[in-house]
Structure formats: structure tokens, C-alpha cells
Specification:
Elements (H helix, E strand, L loop, with lengths): L29 E7 L6 E8 L2 E5 L4 E3 L5 E7 L10
Antiparallel strand pairs: 1-2, 1-5, 2-3, 3-4
Length: 86
């Protein structure tokens, strides 16, 4: 499955807008939105430092962020999601 990328002159309807696309992988630990190339939705993931490498728990083991293909957005503030969010 490939993601459809609209030319800049075409606006997506609001309900179909995805996160700003970035092929750059995270450079430091934190919370990120990650949209894999094979999944239609973005996932909230925690990027952690494991043995000197930035990793994500994916799906049953730590996986280096450089091995994940998709679009990243972040780091995001922990206050922007969860029960304390306004």
C-alpha cells in the first residue's frame, strides 16, 4: 500500500488531512506521531534510547527508528495528548 500524496495546489478535505510529511527520523528521545507506509493511520510512539540507539517498541521488540519506513512528526509535548489535555 502506498500513501497518496496530493500536489501542493490540491487541498485535502479536513477529515482526510494527515500529519505534515517528513522522511527525517527522530534525532532524540520523546513522543512522536509516526505513520508507517503500510498503515493508514498515524500512531503515537515513544522513541527511547536503548543501548545507544534510538528505538521504538515495534510491535513486540525494540526496533531502531532508522529501520521504520514512514512519516514522522514530533517530538510532541506530552501535554498535547492524554487526560490532561485541554
Amino acid at each position: 500500500m502506498t500513501l497518496v500524496r496530493f500536489p501542493p495546489t490540491i487541498r485535502r478535505p479536513t477529515r482526510y488531512r494527515m500529519l505534515p510529511e517528513s522522511d527525517a527520523t527522530p534525532t532524540h528521545p520523546g513522543w512522536y506521531w509516526f505513520q508507517p507506509e503500510t498503515i493508514a493511520r498515524a500512531l503515537l510512539v515513544e522513541v527511547r534510547m536503548t543501548k545507544g540507539t534510538l528505538t521504538v517498541w515495534w510491535p513486540t521488540q525494540d526496533k531502531p527508528v532508522g529501520h521504520l519506513n514512514g512519516c514522522w512528526h514530533g517530538p510532541i509535548s506530552p501535554l498535547s495528548f492524554g487526560p490532561g489535555r485541554q
